[in-house]
Amino acid sequence: MALKELVTNADGRLSTTTTVQFLTFLTLAGTLIYSVYLDRVYVPDLFLYLAGFGGGLVATKGAVSAYKAAKESEK
């Protein structure tokens, strides 16, 4: 599996949803490693904020896409 397959749709175009999810995962993994290295106690707070932001981006994009599809089907 190539890295390109992780962030593209089946037709080869860049998938913003998949890209956001992949970058959120990398950010959370990097935050965990860095926080453990520095022996910080606020790791759960960082995870909550970062995961909420990454999940929120994907959820709002999905909601907007569903709304646009519903508007298009009404025409």
Automatic annotation (TrEMBL):
InterPro entries: DUF2644. The keyword Transmembrane applies. The chain crosses the membrane at residues 12-34, 46-67. Keywords: Membrane, Transmembrane, Transmembrane helix. This is Protein of uncharacterized function (DUF2644). It comes from [Actinobacillus] rossii.
